[in-house]
Amino acid sequence: MKKKKIYAVVDLETTGTKMDGTNRIIQFSCVFVQNNEIINSFNSLVNPMCAVPDEILNLTGILAKDLRKAPIFEDLAGTIYSLLQDTIFVAHNIQFDYRFLNQELERVGYPSLELEGIDTVQLSQILFPCLGSYRLQDLSQTLKITHDHPHQADSDAQVTSKLLMKLMTKVKQLPDSLLKQLQSMSNCLIYETGKIFNVTGKKDENKYQQVGKLTLKRIEHSKETNQKTDLKIKWPENFEKRKEQQLLFKDVFQTLNKNNGKDFFNAPTGIGKTLGYLLPSAVQAAQGQKFVISTTTNALQNQLIEKEFVQLNNIYPNNLKVVSIKGSQHYIDIDKFARTLNQTQNDYTTLVQMRILVWLSQTETGDLDELQLTVQQLPLFDEIIHHGVESLNPESPYYNFDFMRRRAELIRSADFVVTNHAYLVHHIQELGKNKTLIIDEAQQLIPIVLQKNNEELDLDEIKIISDTLLTKIESQISFSFRNLIFQQLLTQGEYQKILAEIQAIDHLVPEIRDRLFQQFVTNHSKKNMLEIPINFNKIFGFMKENWYLWIKIQHAIQKLVKNNQKIYQKFIQALDQHRLDSKSFNLFKSYFQLCDQLKKSLKNWK
């Protein structure tokens, strides 16, 4: 946008949010911004000439007596209309402020404003993609913008104007390649919000690297050094020193200084247990010792990174490298994400894609949890979550930049690797050697270890999934694989092969189940839940008698996996060539998702 443009940052307080003609403005505020500086402002209370609900008065802090002395909107409308001419209208949730103001102007005889508009909510979501909340009050705290009177229009407008300036500064710091991509997608944004990306960005090849359609942060792995560092502990003035915590500091430190030291600590709730083991560990890490910390859940893992290590750094300022490691489903598959950029999306999904594009230029981990996205944003996640390194295509231009593949180097160079018990149990070899292991909430580790050593084969689940697959690909009513053949996306031969393989699984697995039931559960009802221990020799004998069925199912699984790989390549090729309409894309997508579920259900079929 042109530098000489004036941005009118507007905020309204009203008697209610419904735009049914019954509510009125009680405060109008506007801050004018030009060349990223505040140049003027206007603020006035407005007498609504009607009763104001108590909850509105309490929320805003506006007094009824002050409203009674204020001018009515009819007397202010001309001034407001004149002030806003030739400006760009900006608001935090512009859909409300702009529409409500126009409704009131029309009510008193003025024409609607016809201004370009910018929404700072959408811009904040895109340019600050890792925040948990985009409420104005929360943004002001996060971005350290003074907000004296939340829910008063003058204070809100001042904060929104400062937010706008931060957003405009942030835009200019983005790499040019990313800005061009955001520009091309900006039609999904409301009003003219997308025009803010019409600037020239930076060409910083040292900080960013262009990989296909994506702009990624260039990750330089620091060289390890054995140099010892003497850091000082600085207790904040408001830090409450607890006796039990101080004892824990001492005990953990002594254990860490032992050769092959092993110990258990039982700490009461509320003594600051986490800092109790983190601080002595950090002191040792500064001397070159490396750590793996495991806790119970992903949520606690995130808390360690976002809260506990931040507190640690305030007490013991350090440059220690901390990396969080989770299961593959928590990471983005950048190849899959890049492919979604070729597909037609609704406006909301495109906004989420823009947010992810900016995040990819910042993240070193590719951990989707950093985005703090909500359930409504998960449909896109189904397409872009990672399914492990083995699922990657080595021929892809994104292969060498895949976050799961780059993770090994992060683990190697980290002072602290933070993970959860489930990941620790299943992937301990990946976490490196010669590291000290700290297990937080160790009592929760036992059931996870026991669960790892159990193998389950749910024959009913296999039957249900294979039935669903057959219904989907054979349907005579809804869009099915017959339509894909007609569109030349699939051949008749390919269809017949996968149909035969799924039918084999669908028919033979229930036969195995029924034979198991007849041999071992003859005197019980199928409706009841049973747990029956079976002697190994008996189960081995059963498998030997029915070995030909096992082999048939195994062969069907292997053939299905092999043929699906060929079909998936055709799907990707058609996607790249823009030959897929929404129906064929959704059918392929749901088919591969069901096949993935079937593969997981059959993983213990040996």
Describe the protein in words.
This protein has 606 residues and is an alpha/beta fold. Helices cover 49% and strands 10% of the residues. It comes from Candidatus Ligilactobacillus excrementigallinarum. This is DNA polymerase III polC-type.
Topology:
Blueprint: E1 6-14, E2 25-34, E3 37-45, H1 54-60, H2 64-69, H3 73-84, E4 88-91, H4 94-107, E5 117-119, H5 120-127, H6 136-142, H7 153-173, H8 176-185, E6 208-211, E7 214-217, H9 243-256, H10 273-285, E8 291-295, H11 298-315, E9 322-324, H12 334-340, H13 347-360, H14 378-384, H15 403-413, E10 416-420, H16 421-427, E11 436-439, H17 445-452, H18 459-474, H19 481-486, H20 492-520, H21 536-545, H22 547-576, H23 582-601
Parallel strand pairs: 1-4, 4-5, 8-10, 8-11, 9-10
Antiparallel strand pairs: 1-2, 2-3, 6-7
Q: Could you give a short account of the major beta sheet?
A: 5 strands, mixed
Strand content: 5-15%
**Contiguous helical run count:** 23
Alpha carbon gap, first and last residue: 63 Å
Number of strands: 11
| Helix/strand structural class | alpha/beta
Query: Which homologous superfamily in CATH is the superfamily of the largest domain?
Result: Ribonuclease H-like superfamily/Ribonuclease H
Name the CATH class of the largest domain.
Alpha Beta
Please name the CATH architecture of the largest domain.
Answer: 2-Layer Sandwich
- When the domains are counted, the total is 4
> In the CATH scheme, what's the topology name of the largest domain?
Nucleotidyltransferase, domain 5
Segments where pLDDT lies below 50 for 5+ residues?
A: none
**What is the CA-based Rg, rounded?**
31 Å
How helical, in percent, are the residues?
40-55%
Shape verdict = globular
GO molecular function: 3'-5' exonuclease activity; ATP binding; DNA binding; DNA-directed DNA polymerase activity; helicase activity
Keywords: ATP-binding, DNA replication, DNA-directed DNA polymerase, Exonuclease, Helicase, Hydrolase, Nuclease, Nucleotide-binding, Nucleotidyltransferase, Transferase
Pfam families: DEAD, RNase_T
Protein name: DNA polymerase III polC-type
